[in-house]
Structure formats: structure tokens, C-alpha cells
Design a protein that fits this description.
Number of domains: 2
Order of helices and strands: EHEHEHEEHEHEHHEHHHHH
Distance between the termini: 31 Å
Radius of gyration: 19 Å
Shape: globular
Strand order of the largest sheet: 3-2-1-4-7-6-8-5
Helix content: 40-55%
CATH class of the largest domain: Alpha Beta
Length: 325
């Protein structure tokens, strides 16, 4: 494998709880022939995030709340990167071993794919239903390359030269990874999934934050796959089928009594958010941007199983695996 320099770009907003562990893990990586730098793009942290980053020698870039979008923050970080490969990782994701970076970058460095993303699993505090979602979309089987354009920037790597030609969409409310991957595939590029490059993805969100996350992702999906619609009569069916399948798995794992309430609440807010986001597709005011992009703040404006996969989730699955999976 050719020696290459890697730029690791991390978006942060009050990530002190997990950032130190992430940066320590990056320092401990068995990089093989790779060298690396770490670039932090921060959007107003006040919890010690910046001090942790400085103590690890990170390059720190600031973006204001008024300017922030997921795509714009990544573009800012990538614009100062010097590596041939850009590695994008969430500030609350922790590699599960010291081969993560090498595993994630190898298929890009070897020219097997242009954009790679790795596995995500839940941590001890993750909701039962979220761990089920991770298991569904991030399985233990590597596909390099894969069919489709599903991708996830919580744990990904791509060629900087491609990003220079095709930067991230700065107006989209989420799924900027899938939108870019869709463009890449249209131009003949390849996306790959690397199960060996695994991270713990820690989401510590309130129910309303979960609702807003799924709302903004469904809103973004309307721009990527506008044929996907969630009808009112679908909402209850999607919700109840997902709760039932989670309950069945919880019974198998003998955790039903402890997890039953949180399963119902998670799936309720997931599908309420997805329904709301699917039904609105418009430009965002600053108040609405704060609502979507800063879920820690109060809303600034108005407020092998049977295949029961909802249409919008099926679209995401097809984007990952192709129509014939």
C-alpha cells in the first residue's frame, strides 16, 4: 500500500464527553503506512471541547451558528486539510480497535472505491431500537464496492480530489453523505462499506431531539429521493410494526420489561419526525435552522423477519444495497 497522508475532520458542538476518548484512540491507531492530522470544526462549544482538542494538537476551525449546516462545516474542515484522503468522524464516535483508521482508508488508498464508510454499533447507553437500526444498516459483512449510494459520515473516508470537484451540499438539512455519494455514483464512482472499520456511536438525545433528527433527515431525503412519500395512513402501521418487531427481539434477549417503554417512545418519535420531515420541503428560516441543527436548544420557531420496512426506510436500504439486494 502506498504511503499516504490522512486528514481526520471532526464536527463538534459540546462533545467533551466523548472527544477525549476519540482523540486518544486516534493517537493510538496502528496507522501502517499512513500519517495523519486532525482538524476540528466547532460550532460554538462551551463545555471544554475546545480545550480538549487543543491539548491533542488539533487544528481548530470555527463556524458560527448562523453559518452552520452539516455540509458547510465539513467543507470548511476539508478546505484546510492537506491529506490525500479525508476521514470524517463524529465527535461522539469511538473506534472499537486500533486498526480502525487503516481499515477504513485501505479500500480508498488501493483505489477499490472512492468513498468508504465503516460500521457503527451502539454503546451501553444506546436505545434498544437505535441498536436495532445500527444492526440493520451497518451489518458485519464488508461490501467493497457496494451497490447503491448509501453512506454515512459519522465514520467515512473519501478522496480529497473528489471532494474538491464535488463539495458537500451546504443547504441540505442532513444526509449530506448520501447526497454526495449519489453524485459520485452518477459520475461512475464507487462506494464501499467496511465492516472492519467499526465505531461505537453514542447518541445521548432526548425524545424531542430524536424527533428532530429524523425530521431533518426525512426532509433531506425528499431532495435526494423525491419519490418517497409517507402518507397519514402509513404512520400508525410503520410505528406499530416496528414496535412489535423490537418487542419480539427484546423478548428473545430477555430485556422486555426493562426496554418496553423506551422502545415504544423511540419508535413513536422516530416516525413522527420522519412523517413531518417527509411532508415539508422548503427553504429554512434561521429559527428553523436552529431547531434542526442545534437539537440541544429549545425550538426557536413553531414548534430475518417479515418485511414490514416503511417506504422511506426501504429507500435508504435500496440506496445502500441496490434494487436487487
Amino acid at each position: 500500500m502506498t504511503a499516504m497522508h490522512v486528514s481526520i475532520v471532526i464536527r463538534t458542538l459540546n462533545e467533551a464527553r466523548h472527544l477525549g476518548e476519540l482523540l486518544e484512540s486516534i493517537d493510538a491507531q496502528d496507522k501502517g503506512s499512513f500519517t495523519s492530522e486532525v482538524i476540528l470544526v466547532d460550532s460554538g462549544s462551551t463545555d471544554g471541547t475546545l480545550e480538549i482538542a487543543a491539548s491533542h494538537g488539533c487544528t481548530i476551525i470555527h463556524i458560527s451558528r448562523e453559518e452552520f449546516s452539516f455540509g458547510r462545516s465539513l467543507n470548511r474542515g476539508c478546505s484546510v486539510a492537506t491529506g490525500e484522503i479525508l476521514v470524517l468522524v463524529s465527535g461522539h464516535c469511538i473506534p472499537t480497535d486500533n486498526a480502525w483508521l487503516r481499515s477504513l482508508c485501505a479500500p480508498v488508498a488501493d483505489r477499490r472505491v472512492d468513498y468508504a464508510y465503516g460500521r457503527q454499533i451502539g454503546g451501553p447507553e444506546s436505545h434498544f431500537s437505535e441498536r436495532r437500526i445500527f444492526n440493520k444498516y451497518f451489518p458485519a459483512i464488508t461490501r467493497v464496492p457496494q451497490d447503491g449510494f448509501f453512506c454515512n459520515n459519522a465514520n467515512s473516508a473519501l478522496w480529497r480530489t473528489f471532494w474538491q470537484r464535488e463539495p458537500f451540499d451546504e443547504l441540505i438539512t442532513g444526509l449530506e453523505d448520501m447526497e454526495l455519494a449519489q453524485r459520485l455514483v452518477r459520475h461512475g464512482g464507487r462506494v464501499g462499506y467496511v465492516a472492519e472499520a467499526c465505531v461505537y456511536h453514542h447518541h445521548l438525545e432526548s425524545w424531542k431531539q430524536i424527533e428532530r433528527r429524523f425530521e431533518r433527515e426525512a426532509l433531506a431525503l425528499q431532495g435526494i429521493m423525491p419519490q418517497i412519500h409517507i402518507r397519514r395512513r402509513d404512520l400508525l402501521r410503520y410505528m406499530t410494526s416496528s414496535i412489535w418487531l423490537d418487542y419480539r427481539q427484546a423478548l428473545r434477549e430477555r430485556v422486555f420489561m426493562r426496554k418496553a417503554k423506551s422502545i415504544a417512545l423511540y419508535r413513536f418519535w422516530q416516525y413522527v419526525g420522519s412523517f413531518k420531515g417527509n411532508r415539508e420541503h422548503r427553504a429554512l428560516s434561521q429559527a428553523q435552522k436552529d431547531k434542526y441543527f442545534y437539537p440541544g436548544l429549545p425550538p426557536a420557531g413553531p414548534a430475518k423477519e417479515p418485511d414490514t420496512t416503511p417506504d422511506h426506510e426501504r429507500a435508504t436500504y435500496v440506496a445502500r444495497h441496490g434494487d436487487h439486494a
